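Exercise 7. Given the encoded structure of a 381-residue chain, write a plausible sequence.
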């Protein structure tokens, strides 16, 4: 089955009991058992629920893994994956991962005895040099948030396999429509499904897919033991969102391309970060592992222009955290999504106070460009 057909028909796409073409919302905590001590398919909804199972099997098939798992948020999914490790284990982390992932690492996981080294995962030597006797995994995002840096997943996975490390990829920005990390050698792929997979800013959810059965059993055990599962209503909504992923991603990408061209030729813009920028140093890797450029881009205004005036002048594009939805969203990482990172580290990692991140929606592109144009005029101090 080709990818776009899988979106509609993979996993569990119909209700086994009634043939309903949408798996219903099984709003139940428990299930009647027919014999004492039997092995029912479902016994309690933290352990398993048919609506959740449907979306878990769907993401499993979309990412080409052996098992999928749905969580109450992307952060819960990330926490569940890090729960594979024990006090004293060491993990190598990309230096441009989601702000909340750094918060989880620095304020929770380190306290519990996990060790981390932060590196630029684009630099294989940096990754290799960070490997210690107790290193268990490399954790990365590509493209990164918000600087759209691209890491060669296959190259990292090779280093990982040579050194007995798990390669874990947060695939939120690309989605499996554009990039399939397990096919490139990664062991675990995860998502904040609150973004492109849900796609409508109406849901908070996380997904994990693993490459082998053993990892599947471990993640499944932890999902049940920790209990941060996705409820049946949100599982249903997420499956509904995923069905239109292909058409949405095509529309996001088309608009982002047009906005990149507009910004690229604009006097008021100092810098643009966009996976589709052919001049960018990472573009070779983009061509190697991505089937498209996605809908995210970041940019900096020229010195002297007011970020505040620009942002507040936007009328169609909404000032909000989050991304990957049908409506265009804009935010300033230094103040919003990446505000929890200490300023010194944030600046060192290239996230300036002037950086603006745009999640390009699927509105008519002319309206978006018109909106940017009038807001740039108002940004003049
Ligand atoms: C939003 C996001 C997360 C966290 O997911 P939540 O669903 O908000 O908990 C993790 N990684 C990336 C790349 C994200 O954009």
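Solution.
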């Amino acid at each position: 089955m080709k990818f776009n057909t899988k979106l509609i028909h993979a996993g569990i796409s119909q209700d086994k009991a009634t043939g309903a073409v949408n798996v219903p919302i099984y709003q139940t905590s428990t299930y009647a058992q027919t014999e004492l001590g039997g092995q029912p398919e479902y016994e309690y909804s933290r352990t398993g629920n048919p609506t959740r199972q449907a979306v878990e099997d769907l993401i499993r098939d979309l990412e080409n893994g052996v098992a999928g798992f749905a969580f109450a948020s992307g952060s819960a999914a990330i926490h569940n994956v890090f729960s594979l490790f024990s006090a004293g284990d060491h993990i190598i982390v990309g230096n441009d991962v989601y702000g909340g992932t750094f918060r989880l690492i620095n304020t929770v996981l380190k306290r519990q005895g996990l060790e981390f080294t932060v590196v630029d995962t684009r630099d294989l030597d940096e990754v290799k040099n960070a490997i210690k006797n107790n290193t268990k995994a490399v954790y990365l995002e590509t493209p990164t948030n918000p600087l759209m840096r691209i890491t060669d997943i296959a190259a990292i996975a090779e280093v990982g396999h040579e050194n007995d490390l798990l390669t874990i990829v947060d695939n939120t920005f690309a989605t499996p429509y554009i990039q399939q990390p397990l096919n490139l050698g990664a062991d675990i792929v995860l998502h904040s499904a609150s973004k492109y997979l849900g796609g409508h800013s109406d849901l908070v959810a996380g997904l994990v897919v693993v490459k082998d059965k053993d990892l599947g059993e471990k993640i499944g055990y932890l999902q049940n033991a920790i209990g941060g599962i996705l409820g049946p209503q949100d599982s249903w909504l997420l499956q509904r969102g995923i069905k239109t992923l292909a058409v949405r991603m095509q529309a996001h990408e088309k608009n982002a391309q047009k906005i990149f061209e507009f910004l690229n030729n604009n006097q008021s813009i100092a810098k643009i970060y966009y996976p589709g920028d052919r001049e960018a140093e990472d573009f070779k890797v983009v061509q190697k592992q991505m089937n498209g450029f996605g809908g995210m881009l970041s940019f900096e205004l020229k010195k002297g222009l007011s970020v505040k005036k620009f942002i507040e002048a936007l009328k169609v594009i909404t000032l909000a955290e989050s991304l990957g939805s049908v409506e265009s969203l804009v935010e300033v990482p230094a103040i919003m999504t990446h505000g929890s990172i200490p300023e010194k580290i944030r600046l060192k990692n290239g996230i300036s106070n002037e950086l603006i991140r745009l999640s390009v929606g699927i509105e008519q592109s002319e309206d978006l460009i018109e909106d940017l144009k009038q807001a740039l005029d108002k940004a003049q101090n």
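Remark. The two ends are 55 Å apart (CA to CA). Students should compare their own answers with the one above.
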